[in-house]
Design goal:
The structure holds two protein chains of two kinds.
Chain A (H helix, E strand, L loop, with lengths): L1 E6 L8 E8 L2 E9 L5 H5 L7 H6 L7 H15 L5 H27 L14 H11 L6 H16 L20 H29 L8 E2 L2 E2 L7 H32 L12 E3 L2 E3 L8 E3 L2 E3 L14 E4 L45 E4 L8 H10 L3 H14 L9 H31 L17 E9 L2 E10 L2 E8 L1 H6 L10 H6 L11 H9 L7 E5 L6 E2 L5
Antiparallel strand pairs in A: 1-2, 1-15, 2-3, 4-5, 6-9, 7-8, 10-11, 12-13, 13-14, 15-16
Helix pairs in contact in A: 4-7, 4-8, 4-11, 5-6, 5-7, 7-8, 8-11, 9-10, 9-11, 10-11
Chain B lengths: L6 H7 L4 H14 L7 H9 L3 E6 L5 H6 L7 H8 L1 E5 L7 H14 L5 E5 L2 E2 L8 E2 L2 E2 H8 L5 E5 H6 L12 E2 L1 H5 L4 E3 L6 H14 L12 H4 L3 H4 L3 H5 L10 H5 L17 H4 L23 H4 L8
Parallel strand pairs in B: 1-2, 1-3, 3-7, 7-9
Antiparallel strand pairs in B: 4-8, 5-6
Classes of the chains: A alpha+beta, B alpha/beta.
């Protein structure tokens, strides 16, 4: 039995450490550790509630505007503010653009290198790669293009300075793509690094800048002078380009890569899923959400209703004070300090040892996975025909049944499916915005009072790129009395709870094959499939001596 | 990608002699305040693609995201052709021990010759245990890496000035990279810094062989030498006393001055009105949102509340 620690886990947002126990070539147990604490919830106390969306947006510069959205919704819920139709639509368009940026970046820049062997691409035949691209991709390239790409890659490798591709697990037996597919994927990795620039422009059209937009505020959106034909056309043009990239490159690559890794449709799954739902189509929330709110329990494809009062967070195994699960509306963030923290060294060995800065959210005491897979499953059974049709199409193409969704591969495929469906819905919302302005409605902000007489409690619940995101606020005398964020990666990457139930990523890792504990590529695959918004590292501990071995991999 | 050719060869093609090249390295040493004995080291540093180590401390990765929004040059071209981005947790393929090994080797083999880019603040409370990578605190990593670099560029308000994590009550005693480590940094401030300013700094360094001139806060003057208010397209409305009194009012619809709803433009040095964001797509004031002063130290405390006239 070997303990394998991966710290840092690269290609994620933030600082994450994953430790696994490997027995007979499979993960037997797993521990997920967030290794950074900043305390934004403490910083928010006593501030103007309208400022919270700017501060919470700094939770993450990758999913950026989603915290702004959750925050303004929480304040609006507390003050019973209804936002104008234009504001609702502009927010939907910006949020959809964020997903269209985020999901392809995850696929190409963050997770592809777990499945694509860059070094193997050096032995690809350019002619055959061109033929392959003609057969599977919507943007086929010529033999000459692939000769050039291969030449550049060779020169890069020959320079001896491998930059971000150095010292990885190249040549690992779990890489299964033919050399030509690897070369084609390297080309698309570079293509998306460019394409994402334009996807980000879509969010800046309405939100001023990306990352960290400045366009929302409680009551609506700030754009009004610029709510004009020129801006709408700019968004629509960028949207059409992005949809073309998703349809011609992203989805075909997803299907092509998945077809070589069908064994991963049986690895890395969970059974319980929660999606808050999102994209209001009227001011009736959550009933008008385009992606509905709901749960899937015990792997049964049946919609279960969500009661937000049953959400709790607990800290038995996290470095905080507190001894019982609390609803976020009365939640606490009291980090351990000084001697009590014991150096913040993860204690994964003792039964009740604390090992993470991430709290453990639960729904009615149950562990829940959140994210695009949860949102796709809930939408599939919750009446979203576009999701249902696209999911069925993908399953048919890969010749697998719905069970395949409950897996590492299912998680990656669901992200692409949600991205495509969301992008097409954005076209519809753009035209609704046009129609609404045509009717003469140019309102983008609802006025309200924020002073010493302002009190209230509210929640903003979104379903964003990485899953269900909730902000809970308590306002007293016009200031923030309490603020709690339960973010998607808190749900997915959180630790074991007081009832010894493992968090979703820990559960998903159990049973994952590990061919070589010194090169735990398979662990990265399942961890990355959750698109974590944190950061991590890998080392191996001998269970007898607890010594940490440093592996030298040539 | 023809710039895979190494630097002296590239320079020779452009008619730059070895003597000019050594002069360039001398200039670089002068600008960076290094003794002349460093010249051979600098020459070596640029003979291959210069090694760059990008560290993530207490941050949100927004600065990295901003950097990859650049188009002239494209981020991919900088990463693959211009520099040797040896360590960057968000981009690199290697994980765990193999990643740590790269960091150790890069620092050891290029001691005093690599550039460090630091994103995020450094928590200092309880010896910095609130932020770790590979079991080491950011404080330890900063001391091992930044202090062995040729120069450290702090990107973003957190690395430059402590940022959001250092906002009151600063729960983990976060400090800027310079303050936490006792070093001097070039500061590309902003939340995040603009991609155009980030690449302009790199390009300035590569073309002219020196870091750009900076203000007293270590911020390059080309980007932070202008007051937003002085270059604001809504300045005329300010002079005419045409103000947005409340969001959604007639003034907002007419694009009037945002100073009465909290704009920090008169207190903020940044070139946003000139270059805007995302290839000139937009910027906050154009979108009807007040400037929040994100390139100024302690703006989370000193510019807040953000929607109230200062």
């Amino acid at each position: 039995m070997a303990r394998v620690v991966v710290d840092p886990i690269p290609r994620i947002e933030g600082h994450l450490r994953i430790e696994v126990e490997v027995e007979n070539g499979k993960v037997k147990d797993a521990w997920s550790t967030g290794t950074l604490f900043r305390g934004l919830e403490i910083i928010l106390q006593g501030r103007d509630p309208r400022d919270a969306h700017l501060i919470t947006q700094r939770s993450c510069g990758v999913c950026t505007l989603v915290h702004s959205l959750a925050s303004v919704r929480a304040v609006e819920d507390a003050l019973k503010i209804k936002v104008p139709t234009n504001a609702r639509l502009v927010r939907n368009l910006t949020h959809a653009a964020q997903n269209m940026h985020d999901h392809p970046v995850h696929f190409y820049q963050l997770c592809a290198l777990d499945w694509v062997d860059v070094v193997s691409a050096l032995s690809a035949d350019p002619k055959k790669t061109s033929d392959l691209s003609g057969a599977v991709s919507g943007r086929p390239q010529t033999t000459k293009y692939y000769e050039g790409l291969k030449g550049k890659l060779k020169a890069f490798v020959d320079s001896g300075q491998l930059g971000p591709f150095a010292n990885a697990y190249w040549g690992h037996p779990a890489y299964k793509l033919p050399a030509e597919a690897n070369l084609m994927a390297v080309g698309h990795y570079l293509d998306n690094l460019r394409q994402q620039v334009f996807a980000a422009q879509m969010t800046a059209v309405w939100g001023a800048k990306n990352p960290h937009l400045q366009g929302h505020l409680p009551g609506g959106v700030t754009v009004v002078e610029q709510l004009n034909a020129d801006r709408i056309a700019q968004y629509l043009y960028l949207l059409k380009e992005q949809i073309a990239f998703i349809e011609e490159v992203y989805i075909p690559d997803l299907l092509a890569v998945a077809s070589f890794y069908k064994d991963w449709a049986k690895i890395g799954g969970n059974k319980n899923f929660l999606a808050y739902g999102d994209f209001p189509q009227s001011d009736v929330e959550p009933d008008s959400f385009y992606f509905p709110r709901g749960m899937i329990v015990n792997g049964e494809l049946k919609l279960v209703k969500v009661d937000p009062s049953k959400i709790t967070e607990e800290v038995t195994r996290a470095w905080y004070e507190g001894d019982k699960p609390l609803h976020p509306s009365v939640g606490e963030t009291k980090p351990l300090t000084g001697d009590k923290l014991k150096g913040a060294v993860p204690d994964t060995k003792s039964k009740d040892g604390k090992y993470s800065w991430i709290k453990a959210p639960r729904y009615d005491g149950q562990v829940m996975e959140v994210g695009p897979l949860a949102q796709c499953l809930v939408s599939y059974v919750g009446g979203n025909q576009e999701i249902k049709g696209t999911v069925d199409g993908v399953l048919k193409k890969l010749e697998v049944g719905p069970d395949a969704l409950f897996s590492t591969l299912g998680r990656i495929a669901a992200r692409g499916i949600k991205c495509l469906v969301n992008a097409k819905a954005a076209e519809k919302w753009t035209m609704e915005l046009v129609e609404n302005i045509k009717k003469g409605d140019t309102k983008t902000f609802t006025s309200y009072k924020m002073d010493e007489s302002t009190n209230g409690k509210g929640a903003g619940m979104n379903d964003v790129a990485r899953g269900s995101l909730g902000h809970w606020i308590e306002i007293e005398k016009g200031k923030i009395k309490n603020y709690q964020q339960v973010v998607p990666s808190t749900w997915n990457l959180g630790p074991t709870d007081g009832k010894n139930q493992k968090g979703p990523v820990e559960n998903a890792l159990i049973g994952t094959p590990v061919a070589d504990p010194k090169k735990p590529l398979e662990v990265l695959r399942t961890v990355h499939s959750f698109d974590p918004c944190i950061a991590c590292a890998v080392h191996v501990i001998d269970p007898k001596t607890n010594e940490v071995y440093k592996f030298r991999v040539s | 990608m023809d710039s895979f050719i190494d630097v002296p060869e590239r320079l020779a093609l452009k008619g730059v002699s070895r003597r000019d090249f050594m002069k360039f390295c001398g200039l670089m040493a002068t600008v960076l305040g290094l003794p002349m004995s460093f010249i051979p080291k600098i020459a070596h540093a640029v003979a291959k693609r210069p090694s760059v180590v990008w560290l993530h401390f207490a941050e949100c990765t927004g600065c990295t995201e901003s950097f990859i929004r650049s188009t002239h040059p494209w981020a991919a071209d900088i990463i693959l052709d211009t520099i040797d981005l040896a360590y960057h947790e968000t981009i690199m393929a290697a994980a765990g021990d193999q990643a740590e090994e790269i960091l150790e080797k890069t620092v050891k083999d290029n001691k005093g010759k690599f550039i460090c880019i630091a994103e995020g603040a450094i928590p200092t409370k309880d010896n910095g245990v609130y932020g770790k990578v590979h079991g080491k605190t950011f404080l330890e990593i900063g001391n091992q890496v930044c202090k062995n670099a040729l120069a450290t560029i702090a990107v973003g308000n957190c690395a430059c000035a402590g940022g959001v994590a250092a906002a009151k009550p600063n729960p983990t005693d976060c400090k800027s990279v310079a303050e936490a480590l006792g070093i001097t940094t070039v500061n590309l401030d902003g939340c995040p810094p603009n991609a155009d300013n980030m690449v302009a700094t790199v390009v300035h360094f590569l073309l002219f062989g020196k870091m750009p001139a900076v203000d007293k806060l270590g911020r390059p003057l080309f980007a932070y030498g202008y007051l937003i208010h002085d270059n604001c397209p809504r300045r005329g409305h300010y002079e005419n006393e045409e103000f947005v009194q409340e969001f959604g009012d007639e003034g907002a619809a007419k694009g009037w001055c945002l100073i009465k709803v909290g704009c920090a433009g008169p207190k903020t040095y940044h070139n946003c009105p000139k270059i805007k964001w995302n290839q000139g797509t937009n910027w906050p004031i154009e979108a009807g949102h007040p400037c929040i002063g994100c390139s100024e130290p302690k703006f989370w405390d000193e510019m807040a509340p953000f929607y109230v006239a200062k």
